[in-house]
């Protein structure tokens, strides 16, 4: 998103757009998506935040650029442990509400960018308990904090199932084949258990 800020000239931004087109490069953009805290503690405020980010992206589009995929950054869990130096949501926003809000925000991006764009999310795997393919259970890295959050959902598969369901609910497309480009990515951190690291998990298409 930084390259879309006003201190970057339209000439430079246009040059980058021309380069991506000339080389046939697909363009992916990581967005905040949702930012809990600092007065943003409900769906309406998060949708307004999405509009602010979309205004920045519009500059890229207006100069002739295209977007092939977007991915949110910790939209579900942003400041859920109240570790950031900002005002926190009080009372805390339950994870189910956060998930529903994220789905609505992603639907807003779908309306903004169109049906061709792949939409996904990035979260730290270390927040959740994960059942490995060999039957091994990997536990979250901060159980004393996370497991005591009111309304916490400890299993990753339950979180992704809720987000998948909410994505289908709010997705403005009406046909199943329009779900084909979605991808859900939970990763860049890892789950630790007895020295075992998981770097990334991909789930079924959605949104």
Describe the protein:
- The chain is an alpha/beta fold and 207 residues long.
- The protein is 34% helix and 16% strand.
- It contains five helices and seven strands.
- It has helices at 10-22, 43-62, 95-113, 143-146, 156-170; strands spanning 28-31, 69-73, 118-122, 130-131, 137-138, 185-193, 196-202.
- A three-stranded parallel sheet has the order 1-2-3, with helices on one face. A two-stranded antiparallel ribbon has the order 4-5. The protein has a two-stranded antiparallel ribbon with strand order 6-7.
- Helix 2 (43-62) packs parallel to helix 3 (95-113) and helix 3 packs across helix 5.
- The chain is globular and about 50 Å long.
- The two termini are 22 Å apart.
